[in-house]
Amino acid sequence: MRISYNWLKEHVDIRLAPEKLAELLTMSGLVVESLQPLGPDHIFEIEVTSNRPDWLSVIGIAREVAAICGSRIKALAAAPVKGQDTKSGARIIVDDKKLCPRYTARVIRNVKIGESPQWLKTKVEAMGLRPVNNAVDITNFCLFETGEPMHAFDLDKVSDNAVIVRRAKKGEKIVTIDGVERALDDPILVIADREKPVAIAGVMGGANTEVTASTKNILLEAAYFDPVSVRKTSRKLGVSTESSYRFERKVDLDSIASSSDRATALITELCGGTAGEFFDVGEKTRPEKTAHLRYERLNSVLGLNIEPPRAAAILHALGLEAKGSSRDAITAKVPSFRYDLEAEVDLIEEISRIYGYDRIPQTIPAVVEQPVRVPSTIVVSDKIREALTGFGLDEIMTYSLLGRKSLAAAGVGTGDVVEIQNPLSSEQEVMRPTLIPGMLNAIRWNINRKNKDLRFFELGKVYVKRHDGTFSEHLCLSIGLAGQASAGWLEGARQESFFDVKGMAESLLAELGISGVSFKPAQSPFLSTGAAASLEVGGKIIGILGQVKASVLDEFDIKEKVFTLEVSVEELFSRASLEKTFSEIPRHPSVVRDISLIADATVHNEDLLSTVRDAGSPLLKDAQLIDRYIGKQIPDGKVSLTYRIEYQDPTRTLEDKDITPVHAKILQELERRFGAKLR
Known about the structure:
5 domains; Phenylalanyl-tRNA Synthetase, Chain B, domain 1; 29% helix; Phenylalanyl-tRNA Synthetase, Chain B, domain 3; 19 helices
């Protein structure tokens, strides 16, 4: 907002150079972004926060300057205006009192519209506007001076002298004073006569009732319009004005009549004419609001020793009237223009601003042990990130909103998805029920930019609609692999495979201290048959992994093979054990024996290993599949599997007589349960 230094001096005694005043205003929270000379004047460009609409006027800034400098603000000279014409014939009808809580109008007859005097032109130009005529310039002058937007209508152009505040009708149009025709509809509040809209409430007047050189009678409007309504209208029509900027941030409802009197007095002085009937419809004032301040609390928060008289004087300078006070506290009436003051801490902030932030001493905060540690969920999530980045994966973040097209492309049903009622685009129609579409989009985006060797992971929320109509969200982990696996000079290059993503899942769960992990064949709408497995812990399915179907990859325009994993992280929280334990180094050696079996090709490796572990206990230390072969020497429907089995006893060295019966028991159980034979 622009503020004239010379104009400020008319309302408060300033004995500071503009540069020094700009510094003090900035230190008090009213940031001066720039200071530019303008002839004999200086213009402050001030950043006004949205919670301080009282700063959007010369009077508001002058009040702040008076408080900072210890001066007194000079009251406006205009006194309340008493109209002479009690029967003007005009009628004011407010149909929507919610969007227009207060509407005032003053009839001024027999005005002479012409050029403004130089002092008025100078002030209007200093605020960045172009002078129009004396009546319009006065409304702009008062807008900047008092902060209350006003509008002057040519009363003779208002049909039937009736002013109606209502919502626009569908199909209505208005040509505003900038010469643009604008289409209106129901949510937009307008000022209308019996036939047509004559202004867009709080935004801009209409060309059909603007004040011109031929105008003889004026209807001067000053009102309070709902801030949300004005903001929506301004954004919908794509127009922002000095008036809408103030209405959006709330004007002072209590001072509307006095602001109208100020403008009326200037119009009768500069334009001639006679002030007539005054209409005031709606709320005249808001309920009185008070705030309580304890001086001990003030000094405790700020670390200062501000004397009670000094604190009370600052509040008085800012317009707060003492309603009750003692040595320990003060109760102050909050002025109507300070919507932001509610609680004790607000008064503390006001006093600290004016007293001076630079006078608050620098202190080192006391080190207090926090009884609440980092939640275990965050610890586990950080451990997952640490482990996966250690595996060479890069973390990605994708949008929580998806289009139905992306879900359909991934083969995901939309029956239980959370729908967005007013999506911004077709790509943001639902909240994601799975991380897989986002992962595939990220892989496609990178492949299209020549990044083909990809290893991604994402930790993010997914959202599901329950059968009872409620919604739930869950933290999930997804992994995506594509291109060549990282390989050194010894191994050479190879493509990512199902076993890479499976190995990452196993290694990750091991890092989290989770045991009892198993993988079983599974079906998935986006994974290939025969290359998909469920991830189970303790017999419960917590995720799924495998190779993405070629048909799904075609939908995403991906030519490379992609392997994915999706697992519920919340299922890992209760199972993770990050405490480190150490086992004594074995004093006795282990014994390794290999067995090669012929088994049905339909037998699952996980079932065979489970049988080996059960039958080999307690001497069995480890068992791993080290070779799988199908060829001419193997009958049809069969597969050759070689397992490496390690035996160990922590108390003694094992001999053949100890191992042989256990080994035989393993072979016996494998043959009994699966028909497996030694090769």
